[in-house]
Amino acid sequence: MRLLGISGTITGSKTGIVIRKILEEIKQNHPDIMTELLDLKDYQIQFCDGRDPSTYAEDTKRVIEIVSSADFYLIGTPIFQGSITGALKNLFDLIPPPVFRNKVMGFIATGGTYQHYLVIENQLKPIAGYFRSYVAPGFVYAHNDHFDSNNQIVDLDLLVRMSNLGEEMVRMSRALTHQMLETSNFYG
């Protein structure tokens, strides 16, 4: 199984720090799972203009391929102006919806106010619902106070929630994969 962590921003570092930490822990605890980080700031992605995704070139085409080949996702975004980033929304617009169908998504968000955790409930989970993805029951919201001046995570409760989210995602993805295999074997 292949887990793709997506840092859905082209600015800042806290979102990527949280995602990397979760991916590292999953890799350590589950060496059979391949993990990869897709950091949007490392790519020059075109704006979605409604064309067939196969017609995009260069970085955009590569990113579509990376996302399409994953089995489950850890998706993160900083919260700006009470919403997900435009870069992450653009990524969602570029990916054909069937790519995410029946795959597990886990969400993390970072922000400067404690109310911004609601963006996960009010924006990210409905997007996952549209894609017919399965959403991990837990999620992680990291406030600026959870980091020290060097952007190191210093909040122990946050670290526990990060670990719990990683384990939920692995259990869900394995259970769904097992169930799909049993169903396909039953129906031939």
Automatic annotation (TrEMBL):
Spell out the protein name for this chain.
FMN reductase
Entries under Gene3D superfamilies matching the protein? 3.40.50.360
**Species per Swiss-Prot/TrEMBL record:** Siminovitchia fordii
Ordered alphabetically, the record's keywords are: Flavoprotein, FMN, Oxidoreductase
Cite the NADPH-dependent FMN reductase-like domain residue spans from the record.
1-145
InterPro entries registered for this protein in UniProt: Flavoprotein-like_sf, FMN_Rdtase-like_dom, NAD(P)H-dep_FMN_reductase
